[in-house]
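Page 37, top half.
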Amino acid sequence: MSPSADRATVADARSPLLGRVQAVRAHSLALAATLGPEDQAVQSMPDASPTKWHLAHTTWFFETVVLQPHAPGYACFDPAFGRLFNSYYEFLGPRHPRPQRGLLTRPSAGEVLAYRAHVDAALARFAATADAAAWDAAAPLLELGLQHEQQHQELVATDILHAFSCNPLLPAWQPAAAAPALRLAQAPEPARWLAHPGGVVAVGHAGEGFAYDNETPRHEVLLRPFALADRLVRCGHWLQFIEDGGYATASLWLSDGWAAVQQQGWGAPAYWIAPDDPRAPDGHWQVFGPHGLRPLDPEAPVTHVSFYEAAAYAAWAGARLPTEFEWEALAAGGALPEATGHAWQWTRSSYDPYPGFRPLAGAVGEYNGKFMVGQLVLRGGSAYTPAGHARPSYRNFFPPAARWQCTGVRLAREDAC
């Protein structure tokens, strides 16, 4: 076989992974397409990051984790970008402070796009020319890089939504969509309960396809009989909680949650606009989202609530939050409606390592393991989660007071079956 034929065969074998990387990279740019340079530079709170930073950081990941170690002769676009766009990898050097990412007016949005193009071209060259050993070493990191970028695509959405919610104009970041019909008199359908007999069940990644290290190793847990609601809690249900004084009843709340209610002035989910707010047209509840301000839809799943709010609502409803293993036991068998595509679902499980957990080797070992303290696990996937990114064993995690993510509630209860 001729050398050119050999190269063609190699390119064909590598094209599926490269094509997926390129598709994910293109989707990031599509998410930012409606945002101007000013929009992409804003940082509305320390936990959020500018869109421009997300676009650069995901590029830095491919450059630093894939190209620099595995592509001989690769030339960095700008060595200074390492300090600017490293997130939390101590192994990879110093970083610009996270709360100050909004101060990075330079590089410009245009320079970030040039940086992305430089790295994308280098990735394509690497796929075409790398020897077998280099490609085999880099391929798992390319997969990790595209999965990492998909995580940041969700953050692009939730971070810009928070930023725009701070703007008195309440601008939309996605094209206008038809507003839902206002159905103030319509009560949401009550949930049905999906029973599980409990017993010993296997949880964690089963070994097929991609998974993060925090989903491993697969192991067995013992569950008591339980039941989960067949749907997420609806906005109409939450409105009943509000009207019944849920945010003013200390006995429903965990101590830290009640302190957060007092300190933050919570009286409704994030992005809800009360009828007496001057921004609420016609004196009805409104919800701010990617399409701007829209009337509250009682049948829509409630989103942007903290773990504390989720636990208080569950107490008010005479139920509880599921453990992550209860959630997975039903979701893994396909028996859990609305498992993904609506909201990440708070669980009552602390974000802890599985028995026998070992971080990945090298810098990517910092990806998950060092955050396994003070966080709660969420399961499922939201309306902002890229298609194909979620799976039943996926373990998302956030601190209990977080509300800017698309987080919702599924109830659980003990069951006598």
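Page 37, bottom half:
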Amino acid sequence: MGQWLDGITGWLTLNPEWLAVAVFIVACVECLAIAGLIVPGTVLLFAIAALAGSGALSLSETLLLGFLGGLLGDGVSYYLGRHFHQNIRRLPGLRHHPEWMNGAETYFHKYGIASLLVGRFIGPLRPMLPMVAGMCDMPFPRFAAVSIVAAAGWSVAYLLPGWATGAAFRLPLPEGFWPEAGIVAACIAVVVGLSLNSSLRGHRRATLWIGCASLTVLIALFIGYPHLNDFDQGLSALVQEHRSPWLDEVMVRITQLGEFKKMFVASAIFTGLLLLARQWRHAIFVGVTLAGAAVINTGTKLFFARGRPEILTDPLTSFSMPSGHASGAFAFFLALAILAGRGQPIRLRLTWMLLGCIPAAFIALSRVYLGAHWPTDILAGTLLAMTVCAFSLGVSQYRRPLPAMSQKAWWLLLPALVAVLSFIALTGTPHALLRYAY
């Protein structure tokens, strides 16, 4: 595999004009039934995205090509399932590996639409679920709507890291950037690794371990952030180089979701709806998580009194660290993801957590893009939210686990939250855009 990968990336390095085609094709194959199980598309996507980030393609072009390629792979897979129905099992590959089909079919029948969203981020299920949806005669408009949402999140999660790596190697970054970035990456890897290991092994105190790990790294960041100046400066410079007017407007709409007053309203509605649905323990967990993250964030921000980047045309008066947008967004969406995963297998619960992190990460990263926070600010806000969320969940489950919520409660909760967040994102943009203009 190494020689094969080196051969492809070497050829693309000599022929960068084919990079756009390569991103599209690999994204399509990665989401294509059967082929996505055979071709190591994830590794190849990262390598090609890194080449694109070295100057051949802009971030928006890379993400759009990956998004369109993924949609094509989904569409072809859906058509195969819709055309062949049960005869799909006789196709080459599936004939000798019936477990590929059986696992995806069981997952689809158990979780329905949610399986297409969550399964997009689970390697063995990603290329098979669209085919199963077609085989089960899922209406195409419904499938297309879910596929568009899933493909958008997937393209960002799978292509952005590689593209950013390529762009970082291209720029003349401060001398200490890479050692400091390595330290930050190692700390994040420790927290994520410990969280995954303790969760997958089913440790009784997994939540406590996750909370302690997040708190330890958070304290280390509070102590050591003055020594991460090259990391902050370099990453901020990398982001600012790729600003554009249309992306400014998108990021302003995203960042509005994390503003304190609006997040307070969304959090109050979140908790109130749980109380209205008589989900008492769930409401206490969510309320404590969101209120705790807000109070602790405000206190620590005043204590450190760290200044903001000198990028804004209208500098904000509040202090920078930790980022309130990051802590509020991660607390909100992690709490929602935890509730969504109640009563489900551990791997599915972890996938819900990943899905919850995607919108929160967008809100947090928008602050670096707009020059309102340093990268370590949003990292501190993220760790703060993880810590509060883990300890709040641990206390809520001290005697017994939180049960899964009823479908009736979800039908009350989700439409209301989607409506509130959509209203927040779509209002107040013109004034906010002037504030973050560069």
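Margin note: Residues 140-170 form the longest helix (31 residues).
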